[in-house]
Structures are given as C-alpha cells and as structure tokens.
Write a structure and sequence with these properties.
The structure holds 2 protein chains of 2 kinds. Chain A contains 5 helices and 5 strands, in the order E-E-H-E-E-E-H-H-H-H. Chain A is α+β, with helices and mostly antiparallel strands. Chain A has 2 domains: 74 residues, Ubiquitin-like (UB roll) (Roll), CATH 3.10.20; 81 residues, [2Fe-2S]-binding domain (DNA polymerase, domain 1, Orthogonal Bundle). A 5-stranded mixed β-sheet of chain A has the order 2-1-5-3-4, with helices on one face. In chain A, helix 2 crosses helix 5. In chain B, helix 9 links the parallel strand 16 and strand 17. The chains are: A alpha+beta, B alpha+beta. Bound molecules: FE2/S2 (inorganic) cluster (FES) (2 copies). One FE2/S2 (inorganic) cluster binds next to loops of chain A. One FE2/S2 (inorganic) cluster sits at the interface of chains A and B.
Chain lengths: 165, 796
C-alpha cells in the first residue's frame, strides 16, 4: 500500500505494509531523530506531531498518517536556524545523552503552539513533559528549558530569530 | 592535618585563572542531539543493504535443562537465514562483565547455556531478512525442557540441599567454588580489634536492612550492528560503555584474533552501568561471521527489563559501637547479596558496598563480612553507584538510629565522626579491585561544608518543629556520602592530540561519552591546557581502530583518569609548540630564551611582546622549517582514588491516610573538586538523585511464583517522572583535588548514594517509624501507621 502524507511541509508518497508503525516508516526513510525507547507508548522518545498534535509514533500505524500532516524533530529547526525550543535545551544544558530530547522538544512545541503564547507555569512545563521518560537529567533542566523557550517564543522581539544571550 | 600532605587548599587561587574549565560552555554535542541528528547505534541501520535482523528465544523457565531443540519448523519460515543455539555454537566460558583484564568476575556464562538459569536466559537466536520473520521463527522453535526446582531466596540458596544454579564443570573463578553451594564469592575484612572495640563501646546497636532489584533503564535499549569491512574484518557498532573490553572479550568468545575486530562506539543513549556489559554483540557478530552478512540486534523494552542487568539486591546487617559522647568506636557490616543467575560484577560491587561506606566515619575497628549467592532470578551487574547505594542506605539510616539512641542531632553526630583532609582510609588495602588495593589518604575534602550549606538550604533548624497531628506529617532527613574517582592501580586511559594548520587540534580519546558529557569535559580540559577556545578542539572518542585505549565509562573515572591523560598530552604539545616557536625565532635571526616563553590565547609569547600564533607555528612546521607534525599522546593511571563527598537532604510530607510520600524539597551539596562544567555537574546530581528517588519510593521488581518479572514495561516499572521530581537544589562546594586535572574529581555516581537514606530518614522523622526496607511503598506506610495508631485493629 501507499502512504501519502505531508512530511515537514513536503508531500511524500511511501510504500508501506499494513502492519508498519509510523516510527518505522519514518526511520526507514532516514528520519532518525524519532527514537525508539519502548514501542508501547510509555516513554515519548518517538513523539511526532500529527496535524499539530503530539502523538507517540510507535502507536500510530503508518496508514493512519495517510492524508495527514506529520512534523518530526527534523522539521523543527536546522543547523542554521535551530528552533527556540532546541536553543533553550542546548543553552540550558538540558541535553545529556539526548535520546529523549527530540521527543521532549516535540512535546513542548505541541503544547506551546496549542496555547498560543502567554506565560507558562512551572506546573504546565512539568505536565507537558510527564509522558517523556528521561533517565539522565532528572527533568530539572528540561523543565527550565521549556520555561525559557516559552518566554523566548512569547517575546515578539525574539521570535526565534535572534542570537540568544 | 599533616603539614607535608597537599590537601589542595593552597591551589584554590587557580579558580580565578581558569578560562574554559569551571565554566558552563555549550556542550559540544548538544545542538546536534537537539536537532535529532545524533546517530546512535541503530540510526544507520536503514542505510545497510542486506541487513539481517535477529530475535532471541528466551527461557520461560527459571531453572531447566534443555533436553532438545528442534528448529526444523522455524527454518521453514520464509526469510530465515540462520538459527543459533547451544548445539551449533562453541561453549566458551566467559563473563559478560565489561571489566579490565583479568576480569574479577567468574567465567560462568556461555553464548548459549545448556541449562537455563532464569526466566529470560538465552535459548536460541534467529537471523532473518526482517524482524517479523525472525520473531515468527522464534515462536516456532520447539524446545524440550527438563524443569528443575528453582531457588529464589538468597538465604535459601546458601542452605545445604538447595538447588544448584551453577553445577557445570567448565566454570572458573567462582570464589571458594564448591559444587555443593551457590556461593559466588565471600569476603571477610577486619581492621583493628573489632570484638574488643564493641565490648568497650558504651552503646551497641544492630539492625537489618534490605534493598531491592533496580533496573538501569537507559532510554536507548541495548543495540548492536555488525558487518565485515572491505578487508573482511569484523566491525561491531554497539551501544557500549566499554568498547575496548568488548573487543577483548568478543575475541575470546568468537575465537577471532583481536586485530580482526573493530569496535565502534557511536552516540549512546545512556548506560548507567547496563552497558558495561558484553550483553548482546556476540550474537550479531556470530551471524556476520557465519553468513558474511551485516546483522542487527535491538532489544525491546521488555527484553531490556527482563534480560539486561540490574542492581544487586542485598540484605545488610549493620552494627555500630559508640560512646555516650558521640564518638564512634566500631562498625560492622554483613552483606548477603543476590547476583541472580550469573556472577557479573558479583565480587566488586559487593566490595564497594563496604569500600565506599565504612571509611566515611572514623572508628577504631571495622569488620566487613560478605557473601554473594546465585539464584534463579535476573542477573545483577554494574549500575551507577556500584554497591554504594545499597551500603549507604543501610549505613546512613543506621547513623540516624545511633544518633537518636545517643540523643544527638544526626547532623552533629555525623560531623563529629567524619573523615577529613589527611585521613587515611584504613580499608583501602583490603578492598581493592579483586586484589589488594593501594593505600589511600584523603587530600581535598569539604564534607563539613556540604553538611553546613545543605542544612541551611533545607532549613534543618525546622526539623522536629512540625506539628505532630493531622493526616499530613512532615519530616526532614539527611545522608552524608562519599564515593571514588576511578579504580586505583587498575584504570588506565589515554589520549592523543595533534595540531592543525588553523591552530585547531584533533583530540582522540578512548573515553566513552554515553551521555555524561565527557566529550565536552575532555575538550574543555584540552582547551584550558592548550590556551585555546573550546571551538578549537575537535574531539573523536572511542573507536578501537582509531583512538588510544581507555578502560571505559565506569567507576566515576572519566573526568579524573581520562581527563588527566588529556591534560598530560596537551602539556606535552605545549612544550612542542614552544620548541617550534623558539626554533622559528632562532631561524629568523631573532633568538630568545626558551624558558621565557609562555602560551596563552592561541599564541606562544615572549616577554618582549612578540608572539607566534599556533596557526603560524603549524604552517611553518608543515611546510617551511624543521618540518614535522606537532602531536603527542599520554596515558594516565592513578594509585590515588580521591573521593568526592556530598550531603543530601530531603523534606517529605507523608499522607498517613493514603501512605503516599510527597517530596517537598531535595538538596544535594557536593564536593567534586573543581567542577569542570558546573551545569553538567548539576545535571549529573539531578539525574543521579532522581533515579534513586525511584529506588527509595517506587522502583522494584515484582515476580510471579515462577520467577518471571511481572512489571516488565515502562508502564509498570515505576520511575520518577517530571511530575514526581521535587524542587531540587544542587550546591557545588568547591575544593581543589591536587591529583586531578585542574583540581577535578568525580561527580557522576555519588548522587546515587543519597536519596535512599535521606528519604527514609525524612520519613522516620515525619512519622517516628523507621523503614529498613526499600522501596518504602504507600502500602508499607499504611500498614506501619495502622499498627502504631490502631494496634487493636491490626491484631484482629
Ligand atoms: S517508543 Fe513510542 S512511546 Fe516509547
Ligand atoms: S538525556 Fe538521556 S534520557 Fe534524557
């Protein structure tokens, strides 16, 4: 069967088997930023945006993405222009082994987009990361990074363009 | 404190001169990882043509002899290429423990055992064109088992007549091995006249403690890819903490000359000790050797929880003799540890249980008795903390109990008895790495500062003032800690460095960054030593063909040992740079004093203000005059093992109606010498402590009656999440360790030692009930609270 979707803004049409999950489909095509930590929906390492909503791609059949928009970590920022959430994780030393980082960044992106600006509480930052297992950081710095990112994104002057101090 | 012994205090002025170390720079790999571009082991699998996928058949029995294996039906599954099992793979005894040679662990493992020893032991392995085909074939392998009586309780394992886990002929290195027992190893260490000291002590207290299994849970499961390169050498790309040990042990298992194997460590998604193990790379390696094709094995989370490694469960008995004035007189620790089905790290983890704990307090006499036994349960091994968390739970709970017996404040009682700068470690010799260890004497030590500042941060003076009524009860607890920095006299690391014609440097290290940040730390050390910005260091780590040797990422050794090898190599290159600059000036007819040259800001400078940049020097030595490559290498091994020190504090609120424990605040004050990257040190503290908050309150292995792990998913194995993590404060208490690179000692393992006892002590403070077994669950608390408050109800 053929799965047609909009991936990171571009239309793609990929061959897939009915039993294939979205994680597998993406990784087969080189989108390796989407990680496998449990393949049972319990760790968040495989998070992607499906029509802007965060989903664990290990529980989404590739076929379910047919006709939808999928955004992966690769679609968020680039070497030249990292997304402000990515910048905040990097600058805040919130990345240790980094295996959980793409999923956490995706989670923050989904939440902040949905919220559409305004200040973020610490509680909200904790809750949006709650489905994301990280055995390295103890969550202290990822929570702080999400709060910093929200601040940066909420500030119309920065809008992700400027060098962050 | 002795006069001639350098405790580092004289070097504290160094702090002000640091430019790159002791600063929280952007980690060198962080942006790549945040962009999703870090390539972990499995991230190249989609680019490998003809890759075979492996699936393992695991034992459903805790203890059974394999009578026969019938693979005929499995072989007919389309796509199946090879099926391995004990009948077609040579039986070579080895240990999966990724330790230095000779490993101080018994050779009691086989690629495929003839007798399975726990639920999750290897039985067979299928290689097929797809994962699905491999899984289908695994389900079609027919195995006839002769089921044997299992043994699960470590006390029972020692009884005469208990089922024997290892009765095979070939095993070696099982200490005191005698086939009638399940004893893996035992130790008896004494210092001073223990019985006499106890007899003279004013008070003697003896208590028993118990700690459970715990799973490392690196978010990246174990994974290995293997293939032949164009010279038909075996390439092994594996999620490992120990690439050089992996190569050595693989050569032994596979019967290949070591030089025919190349082990590559790519990005690693966490290890915490579980990847200090030659856990799975032997299987794809065998498939590649037999088929000539690339092969891949990627553990599922369930396999990871059932069949990888764990923290050794222990029963501990602690006995203390003290005088009424609060002076400790004697300490005795007896440990009965369960290593599960195989003995990886059995001796060394348990010897660290004593080695990391007992010397923290000065006493006249010490005794350590230890037995480690086999059972038919999951295999224990290396886990961040390496025996420390077990011992500190017992000791630091016990210190609170002794303080309370003496009517003393627990912090004051500890402070009175702690070791300090200049103290000798009386047990260092007896508790070496499977052999006699070098003597140890403390240089840098700021534990008193850790306690003082930690008390202030948690509000220690509030302890004992909380209202003793209502369903919610508050309490504050603490623990004092120390750990080590590397294995003295054993761990060796090396680095090489070369200059490029833009003044940058290639730094090659055997050290293995598994997410710890060591690529950044080692680059910072190089940049500081060379006098260049961090961006001028290009680091490449751990590839057995390319980088020099390093023992691997374990024993809190990378900053201290590997870091020193980097610093030494850089210091040598600085001398070469000065020689070359001197020679250039000489050649240009503008001579100077060699000894007057300084290096700083990417230049070699003379007192008269003239300077040559590293780029100019490199261009000259490449193309013009006295042509040579400026490069050098260095190795480092230390007979010293400077302990980092810490004091942890927890404030809890216990709901006596539900038994729930809420952590209100956690403070970790640590003396890790000079923190090379302060935010990274904080991160190590936060992550290490969080893992162990789970150990204290929620993580445990639940088995069914047949020894099968029931909570083998992330949904049911309860780690702390972002919602559970309390407000956390790390306090870096600076010291300067004279034997470490730029004053540094280790930081990664010590945070794992604290949460168990600090939280248990806080709960005891809140409820007046002492829990001596981890995890402390709501059920335990409810039961104990009911027994205390409604004795009649619990009796009925
Ligand atoms: S891999 Fe999808 S949630 Fe863990
Ligand atoms: S940084 Fe390693 S799991 Fe989060």
């Amino acid at each position: 069967m053929n799965v047609e979707l909009t991936l990171n803004g571009e239309a793609v049409s990929w061959e897939s088997e009915p039993h294939e999950f979205l994680t597998e489909l993406l990784r087969r095509h080189g989108l390796i930023g989407t990680k496998r930590g449990c393949e049972s929906g319990d760790c968040g390492a495989c998070a992607v945006l499906l029509d802007g909503e965060e989903v664990p791609s290990c529980l989404v059949l590739a076929a379910q993405a047919h006709g939808h928009e999928v955004t992966t970590i690769e679609g968020l920022g680039s070497w030249e222009r990292p997304h402000p959430i990515q910048e905040a994780f990097v600058d805040g030393t919130a990345v240790q082994c980094g295996y959980c980082t793409p999923g956490m960044v995706i989670a923050a992106k989904a939440y902040l987009d949905r919220k559409g600006g305004g200040p973020l509480s610490e509680r909200e930052a904790r809750e949006l990361l709650a489905g994301h297992v990280c055995r390295c950081t103890g969550y202290v710095k990822p929570i702080a990074a999400v709060l910093r990112a929200a601040e940066a994104l909420g500030d119309p002057r920065s809008a992700g363009e400027e060098e962050r101090a | 404190m002795s006069q001639d012994w350098d405790t580092g205090r004289g070097s504290m002025g160094e702090y002000d001169r640091f430019r790159v170390v002791n600063r929280s720079r952007r980690r060198v790999d962080a942006l790549k990882l945040a962009l999703g571009k870090g390539t972990y082991t499995d991230d190249i699998a989609h680019t490998i043509d003809g890759l075979l996928h492996l699936k393992v058949l695991w034992s459903p029995h805790a203890h059974a002899r394999i009578v026969s294996i019938d693979t005929s039906e499995a072989e007919r599954v389309p796509g199946v290429v090879l099926i391995l099992h004990h009948g077609n793979v040579p039986r070579v005894p080895y240990t999966t423990a990724g330790q230095g040679h000779p490993e101080p662990s018994p050779y009691d493992a086989y690629v495929f055992p003839r007798k399975v020893r726990y639920v999750g032991d290897r039985v067979a392995c299928v290689a097929a064109e797809s994962e699905l085909a491999a899984a289908r074939a695994v389900a079609k392998i027919k195995v006839e088992y002769e089921v044997l009586e299992p043994v699960f309780d470590p006390r029972r394992a020692l009884e005469p007549g208990a089922p024997l886990v290892h009765d095979e002929e070939e095993a070696t290195g099982i200490c005191g091995y005698d086939k009638s027992r399940n004893l893996v190893c035992e130790m008896k260490v004494e210092h001073g006249d223990v019985d006499d000291a106890f007899a003279r002590a004013d008070v003697v207290l003896e208590r028993e403690y118990e700690v459970p299994y715990q799973a490392q849970c690196p978010l990246e499961p174990h994974c290995a890819l293997t293939w032949f390169d164009e010279d038909r050498r075996l390439v092994v790309r594996v999620a490992t903490q120990v690439p050089f040990h992996s190569r050595r042990i693989l050569a032994r298992i596979l019967g290949l000359p070591l030089h025919r194997i190349r082990v590559i460590k790519p990005r690693i998604g966490g290890g915490f000790g579980s990847k200090q193990e030659i856990l799975l790379e032997d299987l794809p390696a065998l498939v590649t050797l037999r088929t000539g094709r690339p092969a891949r094995l990627f553990y599922t989370r369930q396999e990871e929880l059932r069949s990888a490694r764990t923290r050794h469960p222990q029963l501990l008995r602690w006995k203390t003799g003290a005088n009424r004035d609060g002076t400790l007189v004697a300490q005795e620790l007896e440990v009965l540890a369960n290593t599960g089905a195989y003995g990886a790290h059995a001796l060394t983890v348990q010897s660290c249980t004593a080695g990391k704990t007992l010397p923290l307090y000065v006493a006249e006499a010490y005794r350590f008795l230890m037995k480690t036994v086999y059972t038919n349960l999951p295999i224990a091994g290396a886990f961040r903390g390496y025996g420390g968390p077990q011992g500190f739970f017992a000791m630091e709970c016990h210190m609170d109990e002794v303080a309370s017996l003496l009517g003393m404040d627990p912090a004051e009682f500890r402070s009175k008895n702690l070791i300090g700068p200049g103290s000798e470690n009386p047990l260092a010799k007896a508790l070496g790495e499977g052999k006699e260890g070098p003597p140890q004497r403390i240089r840098s030590c700021e534990i008193q500062q850790c306690i003082a500042r930690g008390k202030e941060a948690i509000g220690w003076e509030r302890r004992g003032t909380f209202p003793q009524r209502g369903p919610l009860r508050r309490g504050i607890g603490m623990a004092a800690l120390m750990h080590g920095s590397g294995i003295p006299g054993v761990d060796m690391a090396s680095a090489s460095i070369k200059l490029n014609d833009d003044g940058s440097f290639n730094l090659l290290v055997g050290a293995t960054d598994i997410g710890t940040g060591s690529d950044t730390i080692l680059s910072q050390i190089a940049a500081e030593a060379l006098g260049v910005p961090l961006e001028k260091i290009v680091i490449y780590s751990s590839d057995t063909d390319i980088t020099p040797f390093d023992k691997g990422a374990y024993a809190s050794s990378t900053t201290y040992i590997s870091g020193m090898s980097v610093k030494k190599a850089c210091d040598k290159v600085v001398e070469q740079l000065k020689d070359a600059a001197w020679e250039m000036w000489q050649h240009a007819g503008d001579p100077c004093e060699r000894s007057s040259l300084r290096h700083e800001d990417e230049h070699v400078r003379r007192p008269d203000g003239k300077a040559l940049s590293y780029a100019e020097i490199c261009l000259s030595t490449f193309y013009e005059h006295d042509q040579h490559q400026i490069m050098d290498h260095a190795s480092h091994m230390s007979f010293e093992c400077p302990p980092p020190f810490a004091a942890h504090f927890a404030e809890v609120e216990v709901d006596t109606e539900t038994g729930g424990v809420k952590l209100l605040k956690y403070v970790a004050a640590v003396d890790c010498g000079v923190p090379i990257h302060p935010e990274n040190c904080e991160g190590q503290n936060e992550g290490g402590a969080m893992t162990m908050m789970g150990y204290a309150l929620s993580e445990d292995f639940v088995f069914d009656g047949g020894g099968a792990l029931l909570n083998d998913t992330f949904r049911h194995y309860k780690q702390f999440t972002s919602l559970d993590m309390p407000p956390f404060e790390t306090i870096l208490c600076l010291s300067y360790e004279p034997s470490g690179p730029f004053g540094a000692k280790s930081v990664s393992e010590i945070p794992t030692d604290g949460p168990g006892p600090a939280i248990a002590n806080a709960i005891a403070d809140a409820l007046g009930i002492r829990f001596r077994k981890l995890p402390i669950t709501p059920e335990d608390i409810r039961r104990a609270w009911r027994e205390r408050t409604e004795p009649a109800a619990s009796a009925s």
